[in-house]
Task: structure prediction
Amino acid sequence: MTAVPDTSIAPAAADRDPRRPRRPRLRNGYGRPVLELVMVALTVVYLFPLYILVVTSFKRPVDVAGNPVAPPPDLYLGNYETAWFGADLGRAMVNSVVITSLSILGAVVIGAMAAYAIVRGSRRWSTPTLMLFLLGLMIPAQLGMVPLYMLMRDLGLLQTYWSVIIVNTGALMPMTVFLYAGFLRTQSPAYEEAARIDGATWWQTFWRVVFPLLRPVTGTVVIINAINVWNDFLTPLLYLSGSSSRTLPVAVFSFRGEYASEWGIIFAGLVIAALPVLIVYFFLQRHIIQGFGGGLKG
Amino acid sequence: MTAVLSRGRSDAPVRSVPGRPAPRRRPTVAPTWFLLPALVVYALVVLYPSLAGSVLAFTDRSGFDPGEWVGLANFEKLLRDDAARAALTNTVAVAVVITVVQTTLGLLLALALNSAIRARNLMRTLFFAPMMLSPIIVGLLWQYIYTPGGPLDSTLEGLGLGFLTRSWLGSDGALWAIVASIIWHHVGIVMAIYLAGLQSIPPELTEAAQVDGAGAVRRFWYVTRPLLGQSTTIVIALTLTASFKLFDQMFVMTGGGPGVSTQTLSLVMYQQAFVYGEYGYGTAIALVLTMIVAAVVFVQLSITRRGEHQV
Amino acid sequence: MSHRTLIRLAAVATAATLAASLAACASGDAAAGDDPGSLGGTLTLATSSEAGISPLLPDFESDTGVEVETTFAEAGALGEQLTIQLNAGTAPDLFRSAPGRAAPSAVLNLVDAGKLLDLSGQPWAEHVPSAFAPLQEADGKLYAYPTFGQAILAFYNVAAFDKAGVEPPTTWSELIDVLDALKAAGVTPLSFGFADNYVTQFPTYALASSLVNGLEPDFYDELASGETSFAESDGWRETFEKLFSLIDDGYTNADPLGTPGDPAMQAVGTGEAAIVIMPSGAAPTLVGFVPDGWDGLGVFALPATDDPSETFIPFSPDYLVVNADAKNRDAALAFLEHISDPDRASELAEAQGAIPALKNATPIDNPVNESIRSYLQEEHTSPFQNHIWPGGQLAAAMMAGIQQVIQGEKDVDGLLADMDAAYAEITG
Result:
């Protein structure tokens, strides 16, 4: 189903599209001040945990032991200093960026192609193939952890970025194919058919005509997968042991001791680790939420 | 998801839109080799290792001992294992509660933020933001928030609600305290899916109902709600698969305690395989978990799909 | 800019270079050992914390020409990773291992699987305390290097003790008097952070060290031969009865099960509570919570009987072990020899908030070390109980059982029965 005829327009633009006046419809009128008040209150409550996270990261251990809700007495940056230099977070961030972007690049390219073959390909195979991919959403990662590690060893990929990138790309396939296939179903094949009639090869048709049409859902695929890869702890720990290539979560959690944790330092590390994703999110938020719908509905 | 799964059915929920052909006919067939790269990587990383791992469920492999074939002994042990049974009950309860509460809250948020209130874009962003944090971060943060006399308690006392303070992680209620933190973490994605669904409803429909004199509640129930059927299907399928596999939050916040009151199947599986080195038994639990999730999700899909068709 | 840094930059720039350069990294380091007389090559090392280890690396690297590649991760995650790597034959040359059989990757389990190198002939072997033997030896051979020792001790807020006008107790009766006085002074006497289930072990082991290992020295031999059980042991029963009496009689924070370990330590830091029972490794974190640092914090051994000479303290080592299939065995052995130097062994322990494990290590003058020196000299120590136990299930059963007793869902008999059942399951 769809009620959005012009999906080729980037969602950010669609929101401002003059052909689709949204304001009048939204002016339902009654109860608005009350609703606004309720929502503001709810937002404040909802932000409370994030407030605690940030405030604690600026506290000395002695202040952490004091009033938990109070703001820090001064802008103490020691935790950030310790986390950044002590855990070499700068280098870890570069590693995380490289691994995350290459993993997602891989997932987007091969996932979109697979979804296209499923939706527009041979009817007989499409449903079983899609089911096979969906099964991946239900399998706990631990089930195949040991055999997968042995496989990477036999391929000689341990302690290389490639092992993590391949593992991530494979693990992202179910969600990626699911999102792309769902979106493709809602798209008319008219453009591709026109391209085919004009003599374009399948390869050209896909990359020049179909893939650009997938832009809204690609935003969704990228952000959902980025969250998962960026935050993953065990895969990089296992495949990249050796501090020169550790990722952000691995570096941050090296501050968790066996018997005690340095809250201030860990929280500072967590804020640093979350910031890049949050910044990307804040700039793309409209795109992301819209893309979500584009990708998930249908 | 529904539309994808119901391909080829003549009653597929496709509402025709003027100027756009319904995608029923397929005059050209995309080449199958497009599937290959994804299938190869997926088979290599997920299918083959999971199958190879599943074989362990029928052995008594432990530690560095390769173990021997024991048939179904691990599954029989599972039936007798009180801790595993308690974990199964918790897992199911958590999945049901999270699915119901998170879906309802996410829908309410989406409805509120789809109206013309001020700062709705900012609010949408803020409600989605926790999704960006890793489950381990969220677990650590909430463990700290729930500390007796900690952030939550002192805030409640500051608001004169001191009578509400309680042992958040130290009682049988600990499971629900953890569930609350998970809903805080994930409700944003439900909101986002419903927002997208709401924005695809043609405004003429609700306006027509308004002209006919239908109140907000009736408009929601008779016009909006049925059109959100597919969003609901997706939300529930995603929430169910995620909540059956919950691990990090329990692992970080309580480790399954107090006693066994926050044990889940994922946690029991992890402890058996990696803390005790009982790979055979741990794998058997993982296999059972996979089958439960697959069964529940496919039943859910067929039920909600039927619901959508009544529209 | 070093060769390796350049490689790393190139790796970021293009994916193609990445593949080639990482392949080079994996194999190309052997060239580093050209300097005659030095060992050279790469030594891979994985342990749970960089505190203490990292400062010792530069000297070693410049002395030997060996380049050390380190992995640091929290003990649980590290053990998980090492187990998989050992199965796959890709484990580091030198790595951290838990004593006894506490985890799948603990020393004795690895010895059984033939994964560890015999270290009996090493120059430092004669300085390893004999009390550690059951945790690291098999067939009379030594398989582990004790990096430092952890003791479970009672840490107290000095200001809170001054306020109540009390001194550290040396007997159980004195302890109760102290707790009463603290309570009367408006201070929470004991801070238990049992929401983190592993914390339940610390006061339990502190009591059991005196009541079981001290008073029933043959308990574990008899348990192994089937002559006794946890349920039949007076020492274990008394351990749990005393532990729960502290909670039932109102000497602890109101909600031990709802309080995680770190906030429990913070409460002692602020003086809101007086005493917390933790391993010495938690001391550096704990001190951070006390406004006056070490001046505001005291340490004593937790008494469990009314005879001060019967007090034992839990004292267990942390280990580094050498992979039997180490790629750079010589470097691994040289590294252990390097850090076994009396001053270095002491530096490492101090950075960990721990006690030097080797007998010849330079003594450290800080409250933790001073408080336990006499116990070490009299050999009034025992390993942490879970390090003697045959598998992780037993500790898990005990931790869950303790929480259930506090919740009122079980009694001490039920807890002891659970432990016997877990023991039978592991050994049977």
Q: What stands out?
A: The first helix of chain B runs from residue 2 to 5. The two ends of chain B are 17 Å apart (CA to CA). Chain B has a mean pLDDT of 83. Residues 86 and 263 of chain B are 7 Å apart (CA to CA).
